[in-house]
């Protein structure tokens, strides 16, 4: 991989990792509702789970989707349905229950890692990285390099969203305000699906 291509990929990884998407919206909400420490497994699950996804795409899964595009479309619909379910869960999280405690719990490491497989933005990022920034010469080595660099660049980016949520935590102590914040996060999560659904329906 040339220096120019490497720098271009780092810029791609940074922009796609720092911009709003399902992972970042969920981490922002997790930071508010559960704090930084309890959200760490969620953050690590995203970084390592996405690494595995990129490696699998590089090892041939992307070619399967190219030959059978209906499978990719089906995956995007399943991912969208799951994101709608998560939005509903976020909208109802954080409010005190009858004992005064918090309802819900943060994503575990395995849940966050598995979520990457139904995250439409993650698939777009992974396929884009392999198709655009991975030279064919020493392909396997380059795939592993791309996956590792995405973790190095993306890890701090998702961390910033969690920290932002943690900083907002003190401002959202009121149960009503917290509920409104969670509803807002749920709405933004649903809104993040529009480009995916519009692309599927061909209305973009």
Automatic annotation (TrEMBL):
Keywords: Cell membrane, Membrane, Transmembrane, Transmembrane helix. It comes from the Bacteria. Signal peptide: none annotated. The chain crosses the membrane at residues 44-62, 74-91, 143-168, 180-197. GO terms for biological process: cysteine export across plasma membrane. It is a multi-pass membrane protein. Pfam families: LysE (PF01810). The keyword Membrane applies. It is found in: Cell membrane. Its main location: membrane. GO terms for cellular component: plasma membrane. This is Lysine exporter protein (LYSE/YGGA). It comes from Pseudomonas fulva (strain 12-X).
